[in-house]
Amino acid sequence: MSPQSFKRIPLIERYREFLPVTDRTPIISLSEGYTPLIKADRLASMLGGELTIYLKFEGMNPTGSFKDRGMTMAISKAVEAGSRATICASTGNTAASAAAYSARAGLVCAVILPRGAVAIGKVSQSLIHGAKVLAIDGNFDDALRITREISEAYPITLVNSLNPYRIEGQKTGAFEICDELGHAPTYHAIPVGNAGNITAYWAGYKAYYDAGKIETLPIMLGFQAAKSAPIVDGHPIENPETIATAIRIGNPASWKQAVAARDESGGIIDKVTDEEITDAQKLLASVEGIFCEPASAASVAGVIKKAKEGFFRGKCDIVCVLTGHGLKDPDRAIKIAPPIIELPADTKAVAKEMKLV
Ligand code: F0G
After folding, report:
1. Using a 6 Å cutoff on CB, does residue 326 contact ligand 1?
2. Does the beta carbon of 197 sit less than 6 angstroms from any atom of ligand 1?
3. What whole-number distance in Å separates Cα of residue 47 and Cα of residue 196?
4. Rg of the chain on CA atoms, in Å
5. Is the dihedral of CA 269, 52, 242, 159 positive or negative?
6. How far away, in angstroms, is 17 Cα from ligand 1 center?
7. Which of 56, 91, 97, 293 should be mutated for ligand 1, with most atoms under 8 A from CB?
8. Residue 4 confidence (pLDDT)
9. Residue 176 C-alpha to ligand 1 middle, in angstroms?
10. Strand 268-272 relative to strand 219-225: parallel, antiparallel, unpaired?
11. CB–CB of 201/104 below 8 Å?
């Protein structure tokens, strides 16, 4: 086997023709992308019908979430422009990714987090990568407002998805799905928080369609958490709540673009309860062997909800994006899983507990 067959090309090089880069753009990469598209037959059979379900496990990116696709672009372009510092507001994953890619590029990074509302794994990433971690007494929407104001007033590059290069990079998720399947899926299910990712996927599918790489476009299915569902409810939510802290957002920056993706594709944006999210997270872990974080499970929870409603007709394939790894939020996993059984150091006691005797 030649070493070449193992070589991963940075995402930016691989999809260069679809991305706004030039020969002068330095590529800051951590070998992002190439995430697995896992066929979920046991889940599909539980839903009945003629569904084929694929899980695009974005938790396999270098920092454990889909954010790396956009961050390789945003940080590369920041370096190209001569920037020395980056800033973002975050529910945790954008911050982890910004911190890692900024470290790699030698940029100073500041992350503004809602205090007490970010999963511990994500906080640990921002800290170890050396970002300045600022936790404010407010929610994500407050953090984003402050971040925008700082980046407008000072020479610091904003790397939230308001930065157009983030969206450009995240389009590559759609390219990978089409390259692997050989076509676009019938449905594309995705959690919606600040609404950058649904915007990016739809733009990616459209770019591939326009380039003649696919012959059909998917129907976009976005899912928000029930008490953080401004797009579904039709108005900003002042105090959004959900156990899926990644999508605890009351006033998404890409609201209009998400609505356009929904309407242009003939799709829907719906909401799922925390209970449905938790059930989906546990189901994925127990029947498919995939550990994703709660927000990611919203895409699967949504598909389960829609299947129960009889939404899917006939033969179709659905890609659910699992946006982040379960290890990001171990506290939550421990809370919803069965407890540890503590025993004396005694073989008989262990055998008894295992019901072997
Ligand atoms: N899933 C995960 C794991 C996320 O971290 C996010 C967003 C989303 C879904 C929603 O994606 O915002 O593009 O609609 N996390 C952002 C952050 C807000 O700061 O890490 P979106």
Report:
1. no
2. yes
3. 29
4. 20
5. negative
6. 26
7. 91
8. 67
9. 19
10. parallel
11. no
The protein residue whose alpha carbon is closest to atom 19 in ligand 1 is 90
Q: Are 216 and 208 in contact (CB under 8 A)?
A: no
**What digits encode the pLDDT tens for the residues 6-63?**
788 999 999 999 999 999 999 999 999 999 999 999 999 999 879 999 999 999 999 9
Pair of tokens at residue 232: 């579904």
Cα 91 to chain centroid distance, Å, stands at 11
* Pocket mutation for ligand 1, best pick of 101, 109, 197, 262 (most atoms within 8 Å of C-beta): 197
How high is the mean pLDDT of the chain? 97
- Burial zone of 245 (CB within 10 Å; 0-12 exposed, 13-18 middle, 19+ buried): buried
Residues 6+ apart with CB under 8 A from 58: 35, 65, 66, 173, 296, 321, 322, 323, 324
User: pTM value?
Assistant: 0.97
Alpha-carbon span 8 to 34, nearest angstrom: 8
281 Cβ inside 6 Å of ligand 1: no
